[in-house]
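User: quick one, fold this
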Amino acid sequence: MEVHQSVAEPWKVTLVDTGDQTGTGGRLTRVARYIEGDDAFCMTYGDGLGDIDISASVAFHREHGGRVTITAVQPPARFGALGMDGTAITSFQEKPQGEGGWINGGFFVLSPKALDEVHDEAWMFEREPMVSLTAQRQVHAYRHRGFWQAMDTLRDKQRLEELWASGRAPWKTW
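Assistant:
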């Protein structure tokens, strides 16, 4: 373990081996026994980076009273955008932020009761449980307008490494 700062945060981190064949829903149920009381807890897929204000997303979760908060993000566009009037190009914007839609950024605040919707350890939390919770209007979006980047491809990895090496990594806090 490498300690980057000696500031103590009031966080509790527990690592649990949930198995290779378990879906995200099953993994959540396997860690449920470590969640104390009715306190909300955070979950992430771990394949994205962002400068998300976790404290603000937790506060938002407590305010709306639902069981799930998803951090909604607008991913950076892969290509430049053209403005057009007929066949005439009226503007060109190199890789604009977002392509209009909000997506699941992979950072969640969950109430323990959200796990009541997981009925099979093979289930992916994003499927049956989230569909059910959404139908019950228990899922809310915390809109993050800052930096967010997935790391799904070699290209993503290279971009994130370039940001890190240049000292311009928005997620770096120390």
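User: anything notable?
Assistant: The first strand starts at residue 41 and ends at 44.
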